[in-house]
Amino acid sequence: MKRTIFSNQLLPWLLLAPQLAITFIFFLWPAAQAIRHSVLRQDAFGINTNFVGLANFRALMNSAQYLNSLQVTVVFAISVTLLSMGFSLLLAVAVDRMIRSTSVYTTLLVWPYAVAPAVAGILWWFIFNPTIGVMPYVLDVVGYNWNHMTSKTDAMILVVIASAWKQISYNFLFFVAGLQSIPASLREAAAIDGAGPVRRFFDITFPLLSPTTFFLMVVNIVYAMFDTFAVIDATTEGGPAQATNILVYKVYFDGFVGQNMGSSAAQSVILMLIVIALTAIQFRYVEKKVAY
């Protein structure tokens, strides 16, 4: 391996400066400000600020609304991860079995990833709108009265579908790449030994996809807990009755709508710690079962 030596010691830092500046301005500085504000409390007019220590965190642990938001986030994150990964794996296997028109099929499936989360939310809101949507009329034919504006279950189903649909394209690309990296000789040998398609998938294909599956599981959980804010805001705004008020949306609502900056900052710190802990647990325990 050839080693590159810079004659000017300042040059490497100049090359890293743009990325370091972006990391500091958009990641480290906001995180530091959130930690600082989480131990402060402002008055109703935002004039006086007092140091309250961990009082904001204790208030959250005793808040029924916050604990409900935590439960909603767990259900939402698991549902989005399972639905988006399961459906994208099914599509990737279908592409892997195709001989012709694979590139066209792949391109069409990747398009939804270019759609902004807010646009995806509005799109599914129109589809499932009880007044003008198509799906409520279809469901009414089979005897189901859909109304995500009043039903907690319908609202959760709507945001899960919209969020998972947005992420399917991303997962699909990685699953296709993972499937194409598996030697065809392994599956051909299993077929010669008499293993059927289902047996070949679960005994050969899926275990060899474990690195890709592990990576996507981490990414999808982080996506569901952070990047789905725009979907929630465009569809249900956390309702009805806090049924879809996930943690990241509650951070926004309490901070920018309720003007409770201390509580909002404390929630953002807890959310950050939860994601860090989940990622660490997955790398510490789940990765042991990954076959590289």
Structure description:
This protein has helices at residues 10-37, 55-61, 64-96, 102-110, 117-127, 134-141, 152-180, 184-192, 197-208, 210-227, 229-235, 247-257, 261-284; strands spanning 40-42, 49-51. It has 292 residues and is mainly alpha-helical. The chain has one domain (62-288): Orthogonal Bundle (MetI-like fold). Strand 1 (40-42) and strand 2 form a beta hairpin. The longest helix has 33 residues, at 64-96. The chain is globular. The model has no long low-confidence stretch (mean pLDDT 87). Its main location: membrane.
Q: Strand portion, in percent?
A: under 5%
> Gyration radius, to the nearest Å?
23 Å
Mean pLDDT: 87
Which bin fits the share of residues in helices?
over 70%
Q: Give me the CATH fold name.
A: MetI-like fold
Side-by-side strand order of the widest sheet: 1-2
Number of strands: 2
Q: Which parts are unreliable, with pLDDT below 50 for 5 consecutive residues or more?
A: none
Counted by DSSP, the helix tally is 13
The major β-sheet equals: 2 strands, antiparallel
- Domain count: the total is 1
CATH superfamily grouping: MetI-like
Subunit structure: The complex is composed of two ATP-binding proteins (UgpC), two transmembrane proteins (UgpA and UgpE) and a solute-binding protein (UgpB).
InterPro entries: MetI-like, MetI-like_sf, UgpAE/MalFG_permease
Function: Part of the ABC transporter complex UgpBAEC involved in sn-glycerol-3-phosphate (G3P) import. Probably responsible for the translocation of the substrate across the membrane.
Family: Belongs to the binding-protein-dependent transport system permease family.
